[in-house]
Design goal:
alpha+beta, Alpha-Beta Plaits, 2 helices, 20% helix, 39% strand
Length: 111
């Protein structure tokens, strides 16, 4: 069964170890949870050198699927808790999701 309720995917990329802050903030703002993926940064501010070798720091990527009606409040909570308004802390962006499957516990039962 396909869920026709509009959803957004909030993608948050933060320094390794900060994913729990993102998940905690999103849950407090109404999200069900999130998926944490390990990545690595390649931006101009991400690379450091150790003994002349370029080191690309690891990143935590948090995928948070939320109903569109709470997307703004969840994003605001993530930005505040992870301090994304400060340089070098990470980024977050929202992608509209057209269809969702596999979240049957969120689909209202038809009468």
């Amino acid at each position: 069964m396909e869920n026709k309720i509009p959803h957004d995917l909030i993608v948050t990329i933060v320094n390794k170890g900060d994913a729990e802050k993102v998940v905690d903030a999103s849950k407090k703002a109404g999200a069900e949870g999130g998926t944490i993926i390990l990545g690595r940064g390649t931006g101009i501010h991400e690379q450091t050198r150790l003994f002349g070798i370029v080191i690309e720091p690891q990143k935590d990527i948090v995928l948070t699927l939320v109903k569109r009606k709470i997307s703004d409040q969840v994003l605001e909570a993530i930005v505040a808790r992870a301090e994304l308004n400060k340089p070098g802390r990470g980024i977050a962006y929202v992608i509209p999701v057209e269809r969702v499957a596999g979240i049957t516990h969120l689909i209202p039962e038809e009468e």
